[in-house]
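#struct-pred
JK: can someone run the complex with calcium ion? inputs below
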Amino acid sequence: MPKANNTQPRVPKTAIAILAAGRGTRLKSKHPKVLHEVGGKPLLAHVIAAATKVVPASDVFAIIGHEAERVRSAVAASGIGFVLQSQQRGTGHALMVARKALAPYDLVMVLYGDAPLITSQTIQQLRDFHLSKKAAMTLLTARLENPGGYGRIVRKKAGRDDVKAIVEQKNLTPAQQKIHEINAGFYAFDAKLLFSHIEELSTDNHHGEFYLTDMASILAKAKHRVVALQARDDYEVLGGNTRAELSEIDQHMRLAKCRQLMDEGVTILYPEMCVIDSDVEVGADTVIEPGVQLRGTTRVGSDARIGSYSVILSCEIGDEALIQTGCVLEHSVIRARASLGPYSHLRPGCEVCEEAHIGNFVELKKTRVGKGSKANHLTYLGDTDVGENANVGAGTITCNYDGVSKHKTIIEDGVFVGSDSILIAPVRIGKGAYVAAATTVTEDVPPDSLALGRARQIVKEGWAKAKREKAKAQKAK
Ligand code: UD1
Ligand code: CA
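RT: done, structure tokens with the ligand placed:
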């Protein structure tokens, strides 16, 4: 057995606290700030995703307060812990409240729940830098052309790692207003030093809050090391305090997503016109036309084509599938080489199997369409199971709802449903049967038979001509 390597330095036990208790007054919203979405996901969900790549979810704690229960339930599936800050008295106060949860750790990293572009690589880099400098506090900074609204970094000496203080926007002296280096709001702290000095924070500032940023000058004055690391990518630090900032973050995130997919072999025509959520996956050689939205957990295979203005929410789309212009697809599965649209609507719970065709103005709901089957025009199939190689003619409608409950329609393999048929559920059309056009089907149709249920046609020869002549004679009078 190989011997344990005792010379390796012990990796300090690390907790990540994510501050998410604030209301977000500047958004002028009734919804909590951290649940506003960018890239198709709440701000907080992005930060949690980055944090849980660095430490296990059980070592991540979100500090929640405003609308705490809503925030908690929105992200509970991540498995992280929560600490309640029932009164939001500032970012420093948030950590005072979380002391019990965080004090058992060696290292406490802090992220802000409204800054979602942070990556796990940067969090790791911040931790490594902090450890290599043997610092009490390490903070991430960026140089922004327009630093308005952010806390500014006062370094001990230009070009040195050491920081004297972070000064909030409202407290800047005219000289400090010229500083472009800003505080990103991501920190690493030596847990012992943080909690032995945290009570020194005061509310003696513009907002009357406990600013976590004041820990920089407190620790520096106590002769502990406070250092700053500049982020590689200035975008990573952006915080979403206003709707305009949220939109900027969203745009950045979506373009980055398109670039990632293009790097992986996906063709995207006019990427700046496409809306692709962060968790979407697309296989190589798939083509995405302008104006497409791929949202939620949508997964598209390879060699598929998604036509312009299609909006696809949490669907699975197989290899070589063709989704033509203007489809709206939700929570459904489209198998390989199936073809949809233009203008098909799949409501939740549908499965369109291999090589099936769903055409224009066809709406499906909780419906499975088997391999090679077709419903090409102007049709509604709800709660329906269509077998293989069946043909559903234009204008066919299932009556799946009787005003009280929903009922199933079963169309077995090889069935031919003539145009303008009405299928009144519950009903089954047996294998290989025919339904004549314009039939109202109220009873099950046995396999291989013909169902014909429409009024017999009457022809009155010469009737139209006689009518015209009569009208003509009346006019002449
Ligand atoms: C903060 C920093 C600022 C930095 C900027 C980066 C302070 C005092 N200032 O300013 O230096 O440049 O972030 O984006 O920290 N929160 C709580 N409890 C509270 C107050 C806030 O959990 O009592 C949470 C908020 O929900 C938010 C985060 O902390 O997610 C940051 O608070 P916010 O009010 O947005 O701080 P900024 O003014 O942006
Ligand atoms: Ca903020």
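RT: quick notes.
The longest helix spans residues 243-263.
The chain has a mean pLDDT of 96.
JK: thanks, will look after standup
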